[in-house]
Amino acid sequence: MITYRSAGYVHLSLPRLLETLGPDDRVWLWHNGDDEATLEAIRPYRQDARVARFHHSRENVRLREPTNWLWSGSDARFVSKVDDDCLVSPGWLDTFVAAHDANPEFGVIGSWRHPAEDFRPELAQRKIKEYAGGHSLMRNLWVQGSGYLMPRALTEAHGPLGPDESFTGYCIRAARAGAVNGFYHPFVPEDHMDDPRSPHTLIHDDEDLLDRMPLSAKANGVSTVEQWTAQLVQSAIVLQTASLDPRSYSGWRKKAKSLRRRVSIAAGRPAKW
Fold first, then answer.
1. CATH for 2-192?
2. Per-residue DSSP letters for 174-205?
3. How far apart are CA 92 and CA 147, in angstroms?
4. Per-residue pLDDT, 241
5. Average model confidence (pLDDT) for the chain?
6. Distances in Å between the alpha carbon of 239 and those of 105, 112, 118, 174, 183?
7. What spatial distance separates the first Cα and last Cα of the chain, rounded to whole Å?
8. For this UniProt entry, which segments traverse the membrane (predicted)?
9. pLDDT number for residue 263
10. 261 and 273 in contact (C-beta within 8 Å)?
């Protein structure tokens, strides 16, 4: 779990995560920045036996360095990350471990962080596949970087996150090499508290959004709650309709998509994922 200016959420997300652990599961905590309220919220848990390591980076290094810190230092069978603004579901780890054990071809499998109304069965049905052991996935080449579970062997095979590589890019790279990725189905929910529709959200108006400004909102030119909600709805649609052909995310296709996003942002329109 990576924390950053999240005292309003981490007092919920960290205890929930710890409650879901089995006897052999451990949490590594990485804190970015010097927000005293967040440091105070996590301080009681630093001595918890379920917290294996704690690291404080005064610089906000975001994703790559903390992720590679875990991937390179852990000797666990599986690795994961849970965002400080997300509430995982009870039993999520047991469900995902059982799915991996029954299906060695599984790569990165994830929770579903969108509200029920964002699920469109007529769109998603073609991507839902059954696998050994009674497990099913809504196949997708990538999942979000929270509430997922992947074998650490995958990081040994494909190395760490690259200098300019997103977690999405890493998932696609693993899928290109044969890993089967996707969202466990029936979905295992993850409450994304920065979604204005979450009952625990701290984003109630545009001022709240500007104060918190999720990274994906900033990257896509979002400035209002209405735009942010629309982007979250659109991202759910993308996940349910995205191509399963890795060639769709490389070469000229990738360049064309990137150009469309830049044009939308330059024109003052939030980019659609």
1. 3.90.550.10
2. HHHTT-EEEEEES--B-EETTSTTSTT-S--S
3. 8
4. 96
5. 92
6. 21, 10, 11, 17, 9
7. 25
8. none
9. 31
10. no
